[in-house]
Design a protein that fits this description.
By secondary structure, the protein is α+β, with helices and mostly antiparallel strands. Helices cover about 15% and strands about 25% of the residues.
C-alpha cells in the first residue's frame, strides 16, 4: 500500500472525558486509589475497543477483530511499527455494534462480535503491526485505541539470523484492562486483589502499545538533591493523563520498541515472535543463531526456558538486554489464559499438591516451590537484583555499569578499562535489574557457588541495587513500594525472616557472559539497557553491536 503523505493516526486531538469534581483526601495515594482501564459504555461519549483471539499470526491467516463500540461508524488503521512505519491497511466507515463487557473480562476475556477482519498477505514480513481504532465525538475529537498483531516469520519470509522474542508474558502481567492484572485489581473476596488468572482475549491498557514522545520512564533523569523528596515521574504524568497505571512498567511502547527501532536503523535483519510462540512453537528457534530479549522480561513459562536452554546447548546464542527474571507462569485454555499465583502459589496454586505437575507451580523460580534458578537460563536472577535509580531505590546511584573484565570480547573497540563506568549519561542501569550473590577475589567479582548456578558464569560489569526503598528522615512523603516487595520475596524462602532480609535487601545488576553447551549467553541485566540505544549512548551501542554481530554470524 502506498504511504505517501500518510499521517499516523495517533496525531491530532484525542478525546477527553467531561470535567467532574470530587472530594480529595489527604491520605490518598496511588495504592489506595487504584484505577484500571475499562470501557465507558455511554453512547453520549463514543468509544471503540478492539482485541483479537491471539497475539500472533502466520502470513496467509485471517485475523478476526473482536470489537465493541458505542459509535455508529469507526475506522481502523494497521501499520508495521519500526524505524520506518509502513501502512498496510486502512478501513473507514466501519459499521459499529455494541456488546457489553463482563466485569470479569480481565480473566474471562471479551465476548464481543467480529466487526472486521484482515487477511495477512502470504509475503507479509514478520514484525509488530500496530492496530489503531478510532471514532469521532461530537466536537471533532477522536477516541483512539491501540491493539497489535505480531506477524510470525515463515521459512519463506525469514530475514536474517536474529529472532526477537517480545516480552509479552510481562506485558500481560501488567495489563489491567477490564479490572485486574497480576498485581492489583478487582479479583478476590473483597474485590481488591490482583488476579492470578488473566485472559489474553482483551484489549491492552493505554500506553502499552503506543506512547507519545517524551512520556516519562520509571527511572529518574537526574539525582535528587540533598533531602529532596522521592519522585515518581511516570505516576505524576500518567495518572492525570488517563494512561494505564502501569504503562511505564511493561509493553511494546516503553521497552521492546526501542530495540526494534534502533536495530532496524542500524541495518540488522530480524524476525519477531511473542513469548507465547516461544512456549508453543520452540522449533521456530532452529532457523536462527541468535535469540534476543529486551526490556522487562519478568515472566517466563517452564517450556519457554526449556526451549531457550535447549537452543543454546545445541549451539544457539541468547542476547538478553533486559532485567527482572523472576516468576514462572503457565498457560491454560490453549494459551488463552496466563496463570501466575505469585507469592500466593505455595498455598493456593491448584498444582501445588499435584505430584506430576507441581514443578509448574507459578511462584518465583528460586523459591523452594519451583527450585530452578534463573541463572541456569540467563546467567542472573531477580532475587539478587531488583531496583535501582527510581523513587528511593538507589536514587543517587551511578545509573551505569562499572566494568570489571574489560578484555572480554563484548567490550572490543570501546577502550573501556577496569572500573570505568559506561551508560550513566543515558541511564542504562535502572528500574529492575538482575544479579547474583557474589564475592570479590583479587579485585574481581565472582558468582558464589550455588545449586543451579552454572560455574561458567563470568561477571563482566555490575552496579548496586536494593530490594527496599530507603526511608528518609525529613519532610513528610510516601514511598511508592517501601519494603513490600522485600517482604514478598522473604515470604517465599526457607530462611528465617530476619536472615532472609539480610541476604536479599542488597543486590546488584550485572552484565554476564555464560558459555553453555555449544552455545553462549550474554545478559545485560537491566530493563533500561534499551534507552542507551535510543539515546545514542556510544558504549551501549558498541557493546550491543559486538554481541549481535558475533552471535548472528555463528
Amino acid at each position: 500500500m502506498k504511504t505517501t503523505g500518510w499521517v499516523p493516526p495517533e496525531l491530532g486531538s484525542h478525546a477527553i472525558a467531561p470535567r467532574r469534581v470530587r472530594k480529595g483526601f489527604a491520605d490518598e495515594s496511588v495504592f489506595s486509589d487504584f484505577r484500571f482501564q475499562a470501557p465507558r459504555e455511554d453512547r453520549d461519549f463514543p468509544e471503540v475497543f478492539v482485541c483479537t483471539e491471539r497475539m500472533s499470526y502466520d502470513p496467509g491467516e485471517t485475523v478476526e477483530f473482536l470489537a465493541s463500540t458505542t459509535a455508529d461508524r469507526w475506522s481502523m488503521t494497521i501499520y508495521r511499527d519500526g524505524h520506518a512505519p509502513e501502512l498496510v491497511k486502512q478501513a473507514d466507515g466501519l459499521a459499529g455494534a455494541f456488546a457489553a463487557t463482563s466485569p470479569t473480562a480481565y480473566m474471562d476475556g471479551c465476548d464481543w462480535p467480529v466487526l472486521h477482519t484482515w487477511r495477512i498477505p502470504h509475503d507479509m514480513r514478520s514484525g509488530f503491526y500496530r492496530v489503531v481504532s478510532t471514532c469521532e465525538r461530537a466536537h471533532g475529537e477522536r477516541f483512539v485505541q491501540h491493539h497489535f498483531v505480531v506477524v510470525r516469520p515463515t521459512p519463506q519470509t525469514q530475514k536474517g539470523r536474529i529472532l526477537f522474542v517480545l516480552a509479552t508474558a510481562t506485558w500481560t502481567a501488567y495489563n489491567d484492562w477490564g479490572g485486574a492484572n497480576h498485581y492489583f485489581g478487582t479479583w478476590g473476596a473483597n474485590r481488591n486483589e490482583g488476579s492470578p488468572i488473566l485472559s489474553l482475549r482483551r484489549p491492552w491498557s493505554r500506553g502499552f502499545v503506543w506512547l507519545p514522545d517524551g512520556a516519562p520512564r520509571i527511572t529518574l533523569d537526574r539525582a535528587p538533591r540533598m533531602n529532596e523528596m522521592p519522585r515518581y515521574p511516570s505516576k505524576e504524568w500518567g495518572y492525570p493523563g488517563g494512561w494505564a497505571q502501569n504503562y511505564a512498567c511493561a509493553g511494546w511502547a516503553q521497552f521492546d520498541r526501542h530495540f526494534a527501532v534502533w536495530a532496524e536503523s542500524q541495518g540488522y535483519d530480524f524476525d519477531v515472535i511473542t513469548q507465547t510462540d516461544l512456549h508453543a512453537r520452540p522449533e521456530t528457534l532452529d532457523r536462527y543463531s541468535c535469540v534476543v530479549t529486551v526490556g522487562h522480561d519478568e515472566y517466563w513459562s517452564w517450556d519457554m526456558r526449556q526451549a531457550v536452554e535447549s537452543f543454546v546447548e545445541r549451539g544457539g546464542n541468547l542476547s538478553r538486554f533486559g532485567g527482572n527474571f523472576l516468576w514462572q507462569i503457565r498457560f491454560e485454555e490453549d494459551g488463552g489464559k496466563q496463570i501466575c499465583w505469585k507469592s500466593k502459589a505455595p498455598k493456593q496454586d491448584p498444582l501445588r499438591d499435584d505430584p506430576e505437575r507441581k514443578h509448574l507451580v507459578t511462584c518465583a523460580w528460586e523459591s523452594p516451590a519451583v527450585g530452578w534458578p534463573g541463572a541456569s537460563t540467563v546467567g542472573v536472577n531477580g532475587y539478587h537484583g531488583m531496583y535501582a535509580n527510581w523513587g528511593s531505590f538507589t536514587p543517587r546511584g551511578s545509573r551505569g555499569f562499572t566494568v570489571f573484565r574489560p578484555n572480554h570480547w563484548a567490550f572490543a573497540g570501546t577502550n573501556l578499562s577496569y572500573a570505568d563506568v559506561f551508560g550513566s549519561e543515558a541511564g542504562v542501569f535502572g528500574y529492575e535489574v538482575d544479579g547474583l550473590d557474589y564475592t570479590f577475589s583479587e579485585g574481581l567479582p565472582h558468582a558464589v557457588p550455588a545449586s543451579g548456578v552454572p560455574d561458567s558464569i563470568e561477571i563482566l560489569a555490575m552496579s548496586p541495587a536494593v530490594l527496599f526503598e530507603h526511608e528518609q528522615v525529613g519532610s513528610g512523603f510516601r514511598n511508592y513500594i517501601g519494603d513490600d516487595d522485600l517482604e514478598t520475596i522473604v515470604s517465599m524462602v526457607d530462611d528465617e525472616p530476619d536472615v532472609a532480609r539480610r541476604k536479599l535487601r542488597y543486590g546488584s545488576g550485572m552484565m554476564v557472559s555464560m558459555p553453555r553447551g555449544k552455545g553462549h549467553v550474554v545478559t545485560a541485566g537491566s530493563c533500561e539497557w534499551i534507552v542507551g540505544l535510543t539515546r545514542s549512548e556510544p558504549f551501549t551501542e558498541k557493546i550491543t553491536r559486538n554481541i549481535l554481530d558475533r552471535f548472528s554470524a555463528e
